[in-house]
Amino acid sequence: MLSFENVTAGYGDTAIVRDVSLVVPPGEIVGLVGPNGAGKSTLLRAITGSADVHRGSLTLNGTSLANMNARDRARSVGVVPQSVEATFSFSAREFVLMGRHVRMTRFGTASAHDHDVVQEMLELTDTAYLADDPVDTLSGGDLQRLALAQALAQEPDVLLLDEATSHLDLNHRLQVLNLVRRLADEGKAVLAVFHDLDLAARYTDRLAVVHEGGIFSAGGPSDVLTPAMLRSVFGVRAVVGADPVTGSLSVTPVLREQDVPPESQGSVFIAAGGGAGSHLMGLLALEGFSVSAGVLNHGDMDREVAASLMVTRVDLTAYDTPPEEIRTQVLDMARKADARVVFAVPYGPANLANLEAAAAAEGPLVLVGTWSEELDFTHGEATKLWRSLQADSIQVTDARRALAAVRGLVHSEP
Amino acid sequence: MQFRKMLVSLFVIVLAVLVLTGCSSASDAETESDLVESSSADDSSTDVAEALFPVTVTDDAGREVTVESEPMRIVSLAPANTEIVAALGLIDRLVGVTTYDDYPPEVADIEKIGDFITPNLEAIAAAEPDLVLATTGVQADVVTQLEDLGAVVIAIDPQTLADVAGAVAVVGQATGAVSEAVEVIADMNAAIEEVRTAVSAEEPVSCFLEIAQDPLFTVGDGTLLADLLTIAGGDNVVAEPGYVGYSLEQLITDDPVVYMATLGSMSDPADLAVRPGFDGLSAVAADRVYVLDDNLVSRPGPRIVEGLRLIAEALHPNAF
Amino acid sequence: MVDQSRARSVTVITALFAVLLVAIVAGVGLGAVSVGPTEVFAAIGRALSGESGPVSDAVIIDLRLPRVLLAALVGACLASAGVLYQAIFRNPLADPYILGVSSGAGLGAIIAIVSTTTATGLRYGLVPAGAFAGALATILVVVRLASRRGRLETTSLLLAGVAISYILAALTSFIMVLFRQSMASVVFWMMGGLTSASWRYVGMIAPMFVIGVVVPLLYTRQLNIMLLGDERASQLGIEVERFKRITLAFASLLVAAAVSVSGLIGFIGLMTPHIVRLILGPDHRLLLPASTLAGASIMVFADLLARTALAPIEVPVGIVTALLGGPFFIWLLVRREGVR
Fold this sequence. Notes:
The structure holds 3 protein chains of 3 kinds.
Chain A (H helix, E strand, L loop, with lengths): L1 E10 L2 E11 L4 E5 L6 H9 L3 E9 L2 E2 L5 H7 E4 L11 H6 L14 H13 L15 H14 L4 E5 L7 H16 L3 E5 L3 H7 L2 E6 L2 E6 L1 H4 L2 H8 L1 E7 L6 E8 L9 E6 L6 H10 L1 E9 L3 H8 L3 E5 L7 H13 L2 E5 L8 H9 L4 E4 L12 H10 L2 E4 L2 H13 L3
Parallel strand pairs in A: 3-8, 3-9, 6-7, 7-8, 13-14, 13-16, 14-15, 16-17, 17-18
Antiparallel strand pairs in A: 1-2, 1-4, 4-5, 9-10, 11-12
Helix pairs in contact in A: 4-5, 10-15, 12-13, 13-14
Chain B lengths: L1 H21 L32 E4 L5 E4 L6 E3 L2 H9 L6 E3 L24 H6 L4 E4 L5 H9 L4 E3 L5 H15 L2 H23 L4 E8 L4 E3 L4 H8 L2 E3 L6 E3 L2 H7 L3 E5 L6 H6 L7 H4 L3 E4 L1 H4 L6 H12 L5
Parallel strand pairs in B: 3-4, 3-5, 5-6, 7-9, 7-11, 11-12
Antiparallel strand pairs in B: 1-2, 7-8, 8-10
Helix pairs in contact in B: 5-6, 6-12
Chain C lengths: L1 H28 L7 H13 L5 H34 L12 H14 L8 H24 E2 L2 E2 L1 H25 L4 H8 L8 H20 L1 H7 L3 H6 L4 H23 L5 H13 L3 H25 L8 H23 L1
Antiparallel strand pairs in C: 1-2
Helix pairs in contact in C: 1-3, 1-13, 2-3, 3-8, 3-11, 3-12, 3-13, 4-5, 4-6, 4-7, 4-11, 5-6, 5-11, 8-11, 12-13, 13-14
């Protein structure tokens, strides 16, 4: 087990990470995510000895890593770096054999067992077909897999991956991460730096977010990967959703905080639901409009997006008519807006309030989509309201046109 | 720096002009006097007419140089030339010598104007010479520069023992000390004769003269030292002419009976045996290794006859 | 597959040994006085048995044989030092003189030469000692300058080497101007030559060669791994800083030994490993011994050329190797253009 206890580390006298505590048990893949320069690589380097540990204790199965010599360290820790220097024409097999160095006697030669291990690692990383090729002719992706084979040849207990899939194509990325997962399941402790949050969410057991030299948050992927964290740490307004196929989290960045214009371009009220309004919400946010959305139910895609984009709204859990105060709130939102957009989505007792508010607010608005009575779950109320709005509104078919209409409405305000 | 250099050059030129105009006006007729050349035997010294000034001489660079009047301020750019001037009794007229000059002892008090390889032009100009005795070879550029400044320069570079006497004669003519020159030459010839007679009865003995050890350099035909070797009764093993690099293998194959070296190249005869490969030489085994004083052996001045004697004594110790 | 490469290595090394043997016999036999191979062996036989022989025996036993053996040793030292330096710097164009060793040796030699103008007999012992001391002192200073917090970075080493080189070269030139009479001797020494070869020199250098080459031969695996870069090598279990220093020490011992007896002979330390690597690959298990043998043979041939080309004048060996070195670089350049 790898353990950081209040570790402060850096290069020379400069500390990059401060007071970090983290544990990587055998059998687990722990991911490190965070912006560039946060200190993720420094944490890895503290383990390998390339960075200096100033304070705290960094131990592997109880033994301090700082005091270990390079040989003992390499017998326990294998590293897969981001890029591999290969300017000399060793064959791939000879390259991987170098990983056996710490398992061989100082002056000995490679035994049959050593060669067997090398062959096994080559096959495991799907590089056996390259075995006799000179490494200085290979691509970044091939080299990265060979580096993994080399690290595995050390037969380490701990694997450190520093963005080890950055050069890999889709196929090999899956392959390597599946392999790492299997190795973890077989007992290795894995600490891996990820830039791709979706991959991190999918393959790690626990995640630690590294920010400005410290651990911002740590825990399971769903606990850690929140819109709030993404905003604070990465400065990005992103939507965190569940990937429909894998079930693991998927992060969709929408907007950089820096790109949000300081002054609001205008305010827009949207009545939507079921994901219909998500695209428009994103477009409006990008252009600097402040958006309100009335009531939205948990589990509704639009609610997730609204949450990420900091859209003013009321979140509902129930599906029945909301209480008076809430309906007043929604009306207020609609009245204050410079423009209103109403989507043709199913309306029920809960989100009817949005439609009512848009109608009551008076003033031109934009209708998106074609109404059908199948959307009406309010015994005709919704249909009546829609029809009443049709006369004095701009009808559009999609979010882009809605945006154009909104622009027009907002700018033509007296 | 540029400006300063210009000022100094200007000063030197002005000085040179003053020097030249200060000399008494020359008469139209240039009298060519006979050059006194020493021959191998008797000198017809009494036939030499008293040189009048101006006089024109031909120096060892093949140049015709005219000396307008008797030089009273002489600069010598080589120790040999200094010794010639001193032998002619004109040491009081020497106003500049090189740092290498050491004979006669009185030269220690004379102003030093640089070393043999790079004489200092400014110092020479400051000495206001009316005659400069230079050499050829490494000083060729200096001669040109001095002439450009208007100085009277005679280049002296004897290649044989006979040429040394010739040099004495030329200097005598140029300085007006002709009778003294005749005397010096006579003494030299006498000394040479003595050596010749002593070794005439002996067989020439094979020899080698080292002038530098790293790399190993020696002398062949056409050099002054080689001439001395022959006259002193030696048979130089070196077949190539001029100053020659020699390989150890060739030396061991030639195996000279007598091994000589100049003092600048070897400090002690015992040093030779220490050098790897040399202990196989017969000369080392028979203790026929001699270190010779360069100042006597290599300097083409009046004392060269002493050098000749040293060589002869090394080659034929029994004849003396 | 493994057996194949081992068999290949054995063949290559044996072949190189054979070439060296031929070179030595040729070197001993040819020269101002030429002797056939059978005569060479006969002369050696006589020397061993104590018989006396013709004058040519002295030439062979006392002059040629030590000289040729010294040439082989010097070539071997320079080539193997080149291999080690190229490993430390991870650069196939690194030269054993890269850290200013040549300037240091030159300064040591010139001090020895000018202080023995009136005692020339001492020169044969003092000049090698001075050159050796100068070479080692330079390395120590350069390493000291380049160390930062116990870390020895390549760039720092190179910078320190260049700086020290310039300073020492300036000092050397200055001394040369002050002691002009010795200039010829100094320049001659610096051009590199084996004219003062002797059995004594052979005896001095042989043990240093053995130490300097045998030990690194045990560490060829680590040398290979060092080529991946300091960080990766450390991750694979090499104590990088210590290894660099130790390798540098052995390499410098080899260079100092060679330079002390033969002056500054260039290009052998650079060309030999480079060419051998191009032909045999970067694996130090073969590269190191092969380069050592190749360097020895090349030097023996170069010295033969130096002795015989303009006989009886001896061209300094350094000039011969420089004449080989220039075209070598041009060939490298042309080759690169072709590849692109």
